[in-house]
Amino acid sequence: MIARRKERLECLKEKLQTKVKIFALDLTQKESFEIIQEALFQEKPRVKALINCSGYGKLDHYENMSIEVIENMLAVVKMVNSVLPYMHKKSYIVNLASCSGYMPIPYLNIYASTKAFVLSYSRALNEELKYRQIHVLAICPYWVETEFFDRAVE
Q: Is 97:114 a contact under the CB 8 Å cutoff?
């Protein structure tokens, strides 16, 4: 399990009935993916499911966004790329998209566009990975009560 807050990961780990390893990492940092990739390489796990909620959004005018912010909104692809070599037959990738991927949203332009990308990416990846019997889907919820807007306006 990967998230920014270790204490929340620890709490979730206690509730699960399966063995998990915790990584308190910020996926907007390149070094975080290096840590994940090294851990995967060392342990060579058989990943059965990737529940991929990687990424975030920024509420701002498009012209104010740096390329780093834009790239970080596509962390979902980096995560799939990191984990896919350790997935086997009958594994699953579940990518979190959003209903915002179906509509243009001013000042959440890049976020909404990346969610449209995640939906299309997931559909295409599902077809590409059929030969390995790895199933991919995207979930497109409406607004979910999270700390999204706390971070989106930083």
A: no
Mean pLDDT within 120-149: 88
Give buried/exposed letters for 84-118 (b at 16+ CB in 10 A, else e): bebbeeebebebbbbebbeeebeebbbbbbbbbbb
Tell which residue, 22, 24, 124, 146, has the closest CA to residue 77: 124
- pLDDT band at residue 151 using 50, 70 and 90 as cut-offs: low
As a whole number, mean pLDDT of residues 16-25 equals 90
The set of residues, in sequence order, having a beta carbon less than 8 Å from that of 102 and lying 6+ positions away, is 116, 140
Residue 141 is encoded by which pair of tokens?
Answer: 């919820």
Q: What whole-number distance in Å separates Cα of residue 30 and Cα of residue 12?
A: 25
Rounded Cα distance between 136 and 19, Å, is 23
68 three-state secondary structure: helix
For 112, the token pair is 């909404």
Confidence (pLDDT) at 135:
98
Distance CA 131, CA 89 (A): 9
Q: Give the 3-state secondary structure of residue 38.
A: helix
